[in-house]
Amino acid sequence: MTRVSVLACLVLSGIACTQTSQPLIELPAHFPEPVYQFKGNPVSQAGIDLGKLLFNDPLLSADSTIACASCHHQAFAFADGGKALSTGIKNQKGRRNAPGIFNVQWHPYFMADGGVNHLEVMPLAPITDTLEMGESIRQMITKLRRSTFYPAFFKSAFGTDSIYTRNVMLALAQYMGTLVSAHAKYDDVLQGKAKFTKEESEGKKLFEQHCATCHAGVLFSDFKFRSNGLDTSFEKDRGRARVTDTKADEGKFVTPSLRNVALTAPYMHDGRFETLSRVLQHYVHEIKPSAATDSILIKKKINLSAKQQQAVIAFLHTLTDSAFITNKKLVP
Amino acid sequence: MQNKTQRAAAFLVSVIILAGAGCKNKEEGPVVSPFTAKATVTMQHVFGAAPLVLSSQWYVNANNDSLRFAMVKYYISNIKLLSGGQSFAIPGSYFLIDESQEASKTFTLSGLPSAAFDGIEFLIGVDSAKNAGGAQGQTGALDAIHNMYWGWASGYVFTKIEGYFMDGSESGFSLHVGGFESPNNAIRKVTLSFGAQSLQATNTGSDTLVIKTDWSEYFKNPVTLDLKQINSVHAPSAVANSLADNYADMFSFGEIK
Question: Is residue B72 part of a domain?
Fold first, then answer.
């Protein structure tokens, strides 16, 4: 049995594991063990469908205008299509740049400051954020209970048509778990199914030398809190310290994954850089030293010629997963 | 009346006999107690010598600020009843007390061995396992529907007080304390002895433990809170932590009725 189907059996606990059907949630063979393994939240097609419905439903916002999907679009690997800051209810600008959503079950925490500690509670943040969906959980539950069709969806997903916060969260976790991105050219090369061009190869080598300490492994993140030298003062966004109120965390943000990075412009927690070449320019010429700035970037300057920067960008483009952004099963 | 040693012995026997009978509800479900006795708890809110009344009543705190309350809400959890040095942990004991909901101030402890207890221990707030455990435990008092949960910094708000104080004119305060991770762990443990009295758990839960909660303690010892300086706390922080230190001693044993 492959690892993929083993997980399928795990997550389908209770359901007989004899047939060799497509797993509901893919576990790519070249990925590490996920952090979140749906323990106590057995995945079902009905649960995923319900989660998908909720993700796309503006009902979850205070004035029923903004859905999760309003800021997380499949075409941009579930990032917010070119916007530095997203727009929430009443046309309000948010605080940070919306990242793509994929491979979330491998994340130990969420948000640029790691403030959300578990996939199952992730939706509580945007729903209650006054700048995003601005809804109280009580009101959201009331609206869902009043709906003519949601009770039936909850019934088939969880065996009961009583709607509680818990099951709303579990369904959203199941749906987000299906957003696995593991079929970029990079993955094909890793599995011997494709070859890098000369430029991409060169870019990969440079990336491994200069970037992979932080953007590490097949997930392209070490999930540590670091500063990549963007700023020297952090009043505008304290980063990790917003959550921990600890001096050593001022100005540090979790290393983001770079999968699908060519689709998720603009870049950094506030979307300050519009292009990847602008990002490379930052790493090569503009690292600002501060107490927060990672020593890796101070000790060893990233010295890349224009051509080498181009090669790194070519490599980053091999992380684009076209199958993921066109998979019709992931959207309603 | 039983003495302490007899009480402890009787308690131990009943616990040992039923040990092993403690069963779990399915694999990951909540632990269900094999015991069936009950006791009642009532939280009595005061400010110094006066009863706590929301909205209309003005009080003076240790910093000499005049203030009135619009909201007083808090969690107590992980309740243990004590008996002659032994303790009995009450499974799934999470209670949200809300001054504006009279009914929330009286609650039943169930699943108790029928013993006489001489003290109580509990957490102000919610244990870290529930704060870090995702949505599966978010039922009952722990449902995010009660608006006692921080979405952006996952975890429960342990105590929430809001109201107004005089700063020339009326000015608002909103103090939400939570945080379960070092260095800003605001969970506080309270232990109260019932002195010469004891709380008898019975099948009707007729004994009522009255716990007095003095909100004037929130504003002093060890730090005298100056509302003009600190009137808005909405995150786990050093300040939230010091407020938790202040209110950790606001609970005291009232009586057993």
Answer: yes
